Amino acid sequence: MRNIQAEINKRQYSDNIPHPRESAKNFFTTDPNLIYHVQRFLPPSMQKWAMEQLTTFGERVAGPIDDRAAYTDAEGKPKLKKYNRLGEDISEIVTNDGYKKTVAEVYGAGIVSHLYHPVEQLGTTVPYMYSFLMGYLLSQSETGFYCPVTLTMSAAYLIDTFGDDHQKKTYLTGLTSTDYETLYEGATWLTERQGGSDVGANRTVAVKVDGEENVYTLTGEKFFASNAGAMVATVLARVDDQKQGTKGLGLFLVPWIKPNGQKNQIYIRRLKEKLGVNAVPSAEVILEGAEGYLIGKAENGFKYMAEALNISRICNAVASVGIMRRALHEAVYYAENRAAFGANITQYPMVREMISSQLRDVEVSTSAVFHMIEYFDKVINGTATLEERVMSRVLIPLIKYRTGEEAVEAAHTAIEIHGGNGYIEEYVTPRLLRDAQVTTVWEGSSNILALDLLRVIEKENGHELFMRTMHVLIDGLTHSLSMPFAVQLRNQLTILNDNLTYLLQQPKDYLTYKLKSIADHMVDIYSLCCIVREAQDQLENDGNARKYVVAELYWKKHFYADANRGIQGDSLLDVQFYSELLNYGHITEEQIQSASIFRNSLEELSDIQS
Questions:
Q1: What pLDDT sits at residue 11?
Q2: Is the CB of residue 597 less than 8 Å from the CB of residue 552?
Q3: Residues 142 and 107: beta-carbon distance below 8 Å
Q4: Helix, strand, or coil (residue 254)
Q5: Contact between residue 478 and residue 348 where contact means Cβ atoms under 8 Å apart
Q6: How many CA atoms lie within 13 A of 480 on its CB side?
Q7: Three-state SS for 23?
Q8: SS3 (DSSP) at 286
Q9: Predicted TM-score (pTM) above 0.90
Q10: In the CATH scheme, what architecture does the domain 187-299 have?
Q11: Helix axis angle, 546-558 relative to 349-381, nearest 10°?
Q12: Which helix (H) or strand (E) holds 62?
């Protein structure tokens, strides 16, 4: 019977319909752009080790971790065991065995631990950049599980940065363990029913325990608590009723099991049924006098949590570009194995345009994400200048906002290229779309992110520092192929500055109404600058001008406009260089010049110089 079924399955996918199992055996070694970023952003002394580790990890996420993710999403979702046989409320989260193996593998590979414990082969810890490179790979197969990893990373950061020695000794060791048996997964619980993004409306109350230093009891409800059941949760609770909004919130470490071995007074009402990211248990959590330990100063709770939120938002952006990369991979694999109307569908210009647009977005946004992380790493290790610190705060909400939107678009495009098959759960594309959708709302919706940008503009002159930094970066675009982009970027900065000057003089309602337009313009400028910098770097070091084609395609999408709407005189770069773009092939400077790739830009540059 098994042989007959195998033959049926073989026939089912043999006639012009590629099997849904992806071709890549390793998500790292089949991604030349990611290898480029390892070489660009990690210290030279770390690169050989990182390449070896990421090769091993890339094989795991493309194989068994991906298989387990499919099972967890379809049949193995977390379940709530509310009571034991004695009728006692134990609120236990039950996960499947495959998910447990993924937990052990990913944490065992050092995705959190290496940030805190020196790697034996290196004699030092790794920068956050390395952990985010792992997250990019993990998100291509298991976006849902990357959420618990993110929360564990955030909890570890909060305790390490603001916790006392006892909290570090008791809980940080578990949060940064590579051993499944001693691992403490983390969680950060903010959201309440009446508040949502308005954290200042939170009502969970913390009451100090008499005679105990920094020990409180917490009572309240967290309405959307991700990674419910985690051993260590960092929780915001109100310590001062006299202070309104976020000023009255303190930050607490709330363990699932108290130091005396008894379960804490934490109860789970129910697990949420979600559209996607089914691997992460999200729940309504009730605190009934739960024991918690104050982290840092009581009046700084929200400030502390906001810093951890930066980590979560970067992880969100990393997950988004990971989803985009997987969507591109699935679309390419399917298209290359699908024939229609007498030809392989990759021979049709419209299909090439769709795939090229996916590649353009994932390559440019991956560039923007890792350039942003470069600023963040400097902030974390204490080497950032004032300008770099502010740039980090400006860029994190911008890039998180843009990549979330693009992840949904990329997953949608992959489904369309698959046609009806893309809507079938045997393929990974439906899961990609469902998982992508949450990246637009996790850690702040587009409106909240725009308001955060405004806060940095108003309090820290973030827009002025952004302008100055961008001008410095653009001044470094000195290659002849970079110069047209430099002209365009300076022109766009002038427009952005004029618009900001105007808006900051307008009533608040009008200003906030236009905020997302400003955010879009800023991220367009920054992303284009990043990809041109990489294009110049790759041309000067490897003689390959390929990334200039990617940059031009991005410029055409976000900045190009003329009377004929691009219909006349289009050089069709994505069709001309389709193979080189897709396979990261070599494109010479002469090929680009002969394609008249920069005709309009060069004419404008000549006019300005004259």
A1: 37
A2: yes
A3: no
A4: strand
A5: no
A6: 7
A7: coil
A8: strand
A9: yes
A10: Beta Barrel (2.40)
A11: 100
A12: helix 44-62
Domain range list for the chain: 187-299, 461-609
Partner residues linked to 119 by β-bridges: 124
The sign of the torsion formed by the CA atoms of 35, 37, 40, 44 equals negative
> Would you state the structure tokens that stand for residue 130, as one six-digit string?
């390395």
* Residue among 76, 112, 111 nearest 95 (CA): 76
**All residues at 6 or more sequence positions from 156 whose CB lies less than 8 Å from its CB, including other chains:** 112, 115, 116, 172, 175, 176, 186
Contacts of 398 (CB under 8 A, 6+ apart): 449, 453, 519, 522, 523, 526
Distance CA 128, CA 134 (A): 10
Q: Whole-angstrom Cα distance, residue 202 to residue 200?
A: 5
pLDDT of residue 504: 94
Q: Give the Cα separation of 209 and 207 in Å (integer).
A: 6
- Report DSSP letters for 303-357, one per residue: HHHHHHHHHHHHHHHHHHHHHHHHHHHHHHHHHHT-EETTEEGGGSHHHHHHHHH
Burial class (CB in 10 A: 0-12, 13-18, 19+), 63: middle
Q: What span, in angstroms and rounded, lies between the C-alpha atoms of 329 and 105?
A: 24
pLDDT-flagged residues of the chain (< 50): 1-14, 563, 599, 602-603, 605-606, 608-610
Q: Kindly report the number of other CB atoms within 10 A of residue 198's CB atom.
A: 13
Q: How far apart are CA 238 and CA 509, in angstroms?
A: 30
Distance, in Å, from the CA atom of 442 to the CA atom of 610, rounded to the nearest integer, reads 50
The 8-class DSSP code of residue 566 comes to T
Q: How is residue 189 written in tokens?
A: 């619980």
